[in-house]
Design brief:
With 294 residues, the protein is an all-alpha fold. The protein is built from ten helices and two strands; from the N terminus they run αααααααααββα. It has a two-stranded parallel sheet.
């Protein structure tokens, strides 16, 4: 159950309208790494959580907070759109100043949403549920969450640099600070799970069934050997099970692919010898059943 408190989690008051910036701000609302994405991602991870209660509670705590961030951004975008030109572009073109503003704003903010925010990114692409991850494996999910918060904080910082409005910067500084906490939160949760589950996901699969001779080999598939200097190319592996091996110019280990010709009813390109037989009239009629006719 959710309750709505009328006050925002933090202030969302621009100093003045800016419809062009409102379009940019849509990215951290409805983009791939925006607040809608992390809100849905954390809530579904929490609702689906089958692990001990503290993880479920933590996920629902942060997922609920992200609802507040969506509300803050939607409120900010709506206020940035105050006074934006909502009349025809032809009429706006008579005023060069208005034309410049209209030319940079998202016209759907005026035409579709009535000077309000939308669940879209900065290019107007609708938010997509496929942006979110909820796998049932908390270590895998928490690593995805850390990536989402890292990308999200990066984008908010870039938007902070793209405005001088004190009110907008004040709200963004709050969101940046919360993203700092959330990155630390996921790193702490990841570390805790790694101590009990190991660092490889999933930890429940028996390594005897994987091709262990290549489990810890870094294979250099590019010119030069700069990549050999990385931590991933030498020393003990992070799961504590082996040592990294560096392989320069790795050799192919598989067969040369050779596919059987398609049956005649597919009408693909036949092998050379079959085309010769067809030309000589020696190819037997097709006796294979056509599955498309069944």
């Amino acid at each position: 159950m959710f309750y709505h408190v009328k006050e925002l989690q933090y202030n969302a008051k621009p100093t003045q309208p800016d419809p062009v910036y409102a379009k940019k701000l849509q990215e951290v609302l409805g983009g791939q790494f925006g607040e809608i994405s992390v809100m849905i991602q954390y809530l579904f991870q929490g609702w689906n959580c089958r692990a001990e209660g503290k993880y479920r509670d933590m996920l629902l705590d942060i997922g609920t907070e992200e609802i507040a961030h969506v509300e803050m951004l939607a409120t900010m975008i709506a206020q940035l759109l105050d006074g934006a030109p909502a009349h025809d572009q032809e009429q706006a073109a008579k005023d060069p100043v208005i034309e410049a503003v209209l030319g940079g704003m998202n016209p759907q903010h005026a035409i579709v949403s009535g000077l309000g925010a939308q669940p879209n990114d900065s290019m107007g692409y609708p938010w997509n549920a496929r942006y979110t991850i909820s796998s049932g494996n908390l270590l895998a999910d928490f690593r995805a969450n850390l990536n989402a918060e890292s990308q999200g904080r990066l984008q908010v910082v870039r938007l902070y640099e793209a405005t001088t409005d004190p009110g907008v910067r004040d709200m963004l500084s709050f969101l940046i600070a919360r993203d700092t906490m959330h990155q630390n939160q996921w790193m702490a949760a990841i570390e805790e799970l790694e101590q009990t589950q190991g660092v490889i996901v999933p930890s429940t699969f028996n390594q005897e069934y994987e091709k262990q001779e290549v489990s810890y080999s870094f294979m250099n598939y590019s010119q030069g050997e700069e990549s050999s200097q990385g931590r991933w190319a030498k020393g003990p592996s992070f799961d504590g099970q082996s040592n990294f091996e560096y392989i320069q110019n790795p050799k192919a280990m598989g067969q040369k692919p050779e596919l059987n010709p398609a049956p005649p009813y597919i009408h693909g390109t036949p092998p050379v010898d079959m085309r010769i037989m067809q030309g000589r009239g020696k190819l037997e009629p097709n006796q294979q059943p056509n599955p498309f006719m069944q």
